[in-house]
UniProtKB/TrEMBL annotation, chain A:
Lineage: superkingdom: Bacteria
InterPro entries with a match to the protein in the record: Spore_GerAB
Protein name: Spore germination protein
Membrane-spanning residues: 12-33, 45-64, 85-114, 120-141, 148-170, 190-211, 223-246, 278-299, 311-327, 339-358
Pfam families: Spore_permease
Homology family: Belongs to the amino acid-polyamine-organocation (APC) superfamily. Spore germination protein (SGP) (TC 2.A.3.9) family.
Natural source organism: Sporolactobacillus laevolacticus DSM 442
Principal subcellular localization: membrane
GO CC annotations, alphabetized: membrane
UniProtKB/TrEMBL annotation, chain B:
Cleavable signal peptide: 1-23
Spore germination protein N-terminal domain: residues covered: 22-198
Domain Spore germination GerAC-like C-terminal: 207-366
Pfam families: Spore_GerAC, Spore_GerAC_N
Cellular component GO terms, alphabetical: membrane
Record NCBIfam families: spore_ger_x_C (TIGR02887)
Protein name per the record: Spore germination protein
Entry keyword set: Germination, Lipoprotein, Membrane, Palmitate, Signal
GO BP term (any one): spore germination
UniProt-annotated location(s): Membrane
UniProt membrane topology term: Lipid-anchor
Origin species: Sporolactobacillus laevolacticus DSM 442
From TrEMBL, chain C:
GO CC term (a single one): membrane
Family as reported in the entry's similarity comment: Belongs to the GerABKA family.
Lineage: Bacteria, Bacillati, Bacillota, Bacilli, Bacillales
Keyword Ribosomal protein carried by entry: no
Transmembrane segments: 287-309, 383-401, 413-434
Pfam family, one: GerA
Keyword annotations: Membrane, Transmembrane, Transmembrane helix
GO biological process: spore germination
Originating species: Sporolactobacillus laevolacticus DSM 442
Protein name: Spore germination protein GerA
Amino acid sequence: MKPGQISETQQLGPMSGFIIPHTMQISIGILSFQQLLSKDSGQDAWLACLIGGLFSLAIMWMILRLLKNEQKFGRADFFSIHQRLFGKWLGGLLNFFVTAHVVLFGVVFLRSYIEILQVWIFPQLSVFTFTILFCLIIWYIVLGGIRIVGGICMLSFIYMIPLYMSTVFAVPEAYFSNLLPMFEHSPASILISAFHTTHIYLGFELMLYFYPFIKRPQLAKKWCYFGILTSMYIYIILMLMATVFFSRGEMRLTIWPTVTFWKSVSFPLLEHVDMVIIIYYMWALLPSVSMSAWVASRFVKHTFPVIKQKYALVGVLLIFVIISVLIKNGEQVKIANDLYGNIGFFIVYAYVPFLLFYQWLMKKVRGKAA
Amino acid sequence: MKLKTLVILLLLALLSSCMPTNIIDDILMVEAEGFDYIGHNQILGTATMPNYVQSGNPGGQGGGLPSTASMMRYVSGITYDGKSLVDKFQPEGQRPLKIGKVRVMLFDKKLAKHGMRDQIDFRNRDPDTPRDLTIAIVEGSTNKLLTAQDYQTQIPISRYVQDMIQQNNEQNYPTSNLSQFIYSYYGNYMDPFMPLIKKIGNHLEMTGIAIFKKDKYVMKVPNKDTFIFKMLFEKFNQGVYDFEFAPKKHIAIRNVHTTINYKVKDGNSSAPDIYAYVKINGQVRQAYVGSISKSRAYRVEKPLEKQMEQKASKLVRTFQKKGTDPLRLGDTVRSFTYNFDGKSWPERYQNAHFHCQVTVNISQTGISQ
Amino acid sequence: MFWKKKRLEETDKKNKPQTIMDLFQHLKENPDFAHFQHQGDHFSCWISFFKTLVDVDYVHRDVFPCIYDEKIHSMKDIQEQLPIETIIRTKDLSMIQSKLLEGYIIIQKNEADTDCLIIPSIKIEGRQIEKSEVETSILGPKETFVESLDTNINLVRKRIPIPQLKVEELRVGKISRTRVSIVYIDGIANVENVNTVKQRISDLEVANLIDATVLALNISDNDNSIFPQFIDTERPDRVSGAVYEGKIAVLVDGSPNALVMPSTIVEFFVAFDDYFLVWHIASLYRLLRLFAVALSAFASPVYIALLTYHYQLIPKDLLGTLISSRSSVPLDPVMEVIVLEIMIELLREAGARLPTKVGQTIGIVGGIVIGTASVQAGLTSNFLLILVAMSALAAFITPNYRMATSIRFIRFPFIISAQMLGMLGIAFCFIFFVCHLLRLTSLGRPYIEPIYPLRVNDLKDSFIRLPYNFQNTRPMVLRPGDVSRMNATRTHKKKGKHKADIDE
């Protein structure tokens, strides 16, 4: 076995190219993105979802290209690319920044979820208690290795399907005239909304970290695109659902349209479905946070090979707990979310294309030298 | 390994710091709330809690509480507008009061005229309030309606009110619940409405629809016009329309299916044209003797259509005069118009031309000729 | 750990007889040990055996007449004349000892002579093959394994009459040296799996091995998991079905259970009857069992969570019933549930331990006491009673007893976490169990296989059972040596083209 190669028993099947990026994208943003998008583009916000999704597809193509080019130089992941292209120190620093973003990814979702829990179900729930409990579970998952994280993603995908299906309950009470007139908004305002979709589409870039763990990556390629298309489809459906279900003014006031929608639905044997759904959403949260913990602990292992990943993991989870506790109120959660979205936009939609270009440049330069 | 597990278990036990519990038989669940405006931003609030324990435990002649252990039935008191009644009444509560299962909220006409901004804002903010809550305006005092003891029925008043309104919503009354109300209240170019109820003697009655302009009550659609209102508002399939084709001569049509379609022309002009196409598929339920038979059914259709069209136009005319839009015509115009001019809409609404075309099809006339 | 092992070795050494005389000396203390000299005219020898282990009839009827015969002059003659297929001649002391203790006859020329003939004459004492009692079925074969390994292998072999059926024998137990057989079909079973099983069994360090379930506990992948990782069954038909699939069966002498490995979690919810019913019905039964498991794990925790924290979720029409039935109960929902669960658990345990006749009485008495008296005494509510009884019933729908007990146990963590954090606690507990299942392996193969890793192909015989003409590949989880069960094109070809009646 070549050094840097991962044994087959530790690897994921090609299908995970579909499951993992998709479940990374689906997380807490799904509950609240409609408000933000409809602010600028009203009933045309679904177009913004579409545009955001197509952009993400293009970025996915770049990511796969980047990784494929890298394969002949050893292990093809973000950390190795950085170190190869920028040297040990600068590369290490860049690795630190991107990892910090991934940690933010996990923490922001975790903290937003706690906020929702506190608002909707348990006002008295302590952030500390919840994060500790949650991190214990994350610890248990990540300790099982990437395959278990992949399994959690898989199950999360399966468990979420009924929730997507449930949007049909909006149909009897829908006002489809809310979607009319179509294409009313200017391209500029739709693009602004499309910019806001970064928050929900982010997550697929984690492909950069776990790519070496995918068996037969060339097979996984089409699954990757398919995963993003699925997320896009789900977001468009949810956006349409919120548009037809809420009047414009109502949407402006509703912080979590998806949950409020659920609050209006009731079954003969179950009322206040919103509470069940919120707790059920823990499954959407689980893959993102565990993957984030996995990536962060992997960064530690990559940079300081002395430290075993299982010890690094404990440190990472402690950081999760500390940051979560430090975020005190809803306003700070919002700030953290914005920070995460903006940095993510920069890293994924600007830096990744640059990196691809730089890689190509280096190939030319070094190719000539050699 | 053992030690680690033990530490984790201990941690779990410590962490689950006591969450406040709501054990169902140790709380009082408010099922109906009533608000009476008494001037100067003060309201008289009433909350009722059903007394489930009254019947006792059928099998439980033995130990425990006596089977007649009865709870408080209602509380009432004066507070400022927009205050959560549960918090206000807690000091009077025998047990913690909880709002999560509230079914009905009633407001009196005076409060509706005063404006319900604070009330609605609070309901929309509270995660505990269900969205399918039944809301209604009471003619008279809500306090009296909720606390009266002389009803024919023994079931809790909250349930009585809710059942009545919900089943009427499926027939001649337009669908109304908190969700609908909030939709119209916060939506642009539309106004909300609520059903009107009244206590008459030993029972309750629906008396019409209360139409709002934003948060203030402006007018009432009487009981006899609710079919017309609902016909223009949504498609439905269970109403009954009483047609007086000649003085004192009635035919009652049971609606089998009604659909409504809107078309708008010149949405941004100073006087937009709104076309409403209504299709009614109906059965004759009762008829003045000799006025109708299977072969002559079509003869009734034309005058019926005409009357309905007139009534609909008149209803919309009234709404326009009052400047209120419970039929969401403004929103319909918006959806048909690119770059809809929303600012001038309130004035243009008054001038809008409403055209209504009703097509009635009487499919059955009953089992006898 | 270390010194324990050492001590064991020492004691072994001490007890080990040095010469054959030592051995006899040692064994003579047993009253059922026969050790005597046969003094014939032509030939004399020493014969020794355990009267209780050998088939005395057989010895008297067939062995002794032959040895006492005139034609016999030497040990070699016995070996040639005795009408038995295998007569071992050895000088190995440990072998002599173990054979002696298994019911063989030892024949020596002189008492102190190590050179012996070992003649098999084992008495097979045991139950007849009986109808299944643990895994009962209405349709299909009723035979079950018994406590004798040879009979059990016979039961399997007659269902798999092919030369490729391999039966490998190992000895387990430092003291007991119990016979353990590994049964599989060569060429179908995965070689890696077979090697893993062999290695795990031969590496096993135990003093004795009483039952197959003990073996299962000792060689499972995760010893601390509450979920059994190998199926134990008493049905030979189930074992041979599994062996045909490419699984490995392990039989232990003295145990009426066979282990089937590797297994996935869904197989624990498969009753063998499912294969005897038409596929729609079989699939429905399987889904029913799955639902039962969910019900039994979640019914009482959800009751606690709803009544303690989330009163909002209870349907309006149910509120009255719930509150009035709970109004005379002084306990919190959680205590109420625990009291009732423990009562049911006591009843179950008592029913299992008591003799059948008394057990029935206890069942009735318990049913009445719990059913009405506890409600009337205001200890529990009517509503909960129904829930708990239903979930107790549901837990035992699981065909496998070990899995059923796991399912029974699972609710207690759920109950505690539901009391701590309501629905959130239930969710936490559920996630924990799911992660645990994700991490579990059976013989190194993923435990919840058709779901993760997702193998759509294997779903055909998991939660649902598709018709037999869909079942022409063996489960992928086993990585069988031969993937296809039968020729796929031929199975799909129908017996003669069926013509629709409307076309005459």
